[in-house]
Amino acid sequence: MAEKNLEFGKRLERFLFEASFSKKRLAQEAGVSPSAVGTYINEGRIPEAPILLRIARLLNKSMEELLTGEGEPVGYQKDIREVSLLENNLIKLFHSLPMDNKMGLLGIFNTYVQALKNEKGNSAQLAYDDFRKSFMEEVKKSE
Q1: Which one of 67, 68, 76, 85 is most buried, counting C-beta atoms within 10 A?
Q2: pLDDT at 69
Q3: What is the pTM of this model?
Q4: What architecture is domain 6-68?
């Protein structure tokens, strides 16, 4: 059963207004029905993670902002001169994957980054090995 939160619905409606998005346009671009958008806003139904991520990107918000109203505004639009060739290649490869594969990789990548931040050498290496193996498997699946 989908989680409900009336504050989420109010927030989504406000973000739609701020982004000059109609409910119909959001439905079309997020790949959901207009009635689904209506339940998100009027009943506070929180969409599944892949849909929530699409909505966040369309509205230039983070998932955290959509869910809680808190968090840093999305600002990952780096100056193109700051993006290295490696980052650019990773972004292109990532964008070529289906959404399910992207979500899986994000989870694995987050685990790896957390391990690095916690400076746990062995767990970081294990997380990296898992990430690399999973990433290559996801890439092969999408080819």
Answers
A1: 67
A2: 82
A3: 0.50
A4: Orthogonal Bundle (1.10)
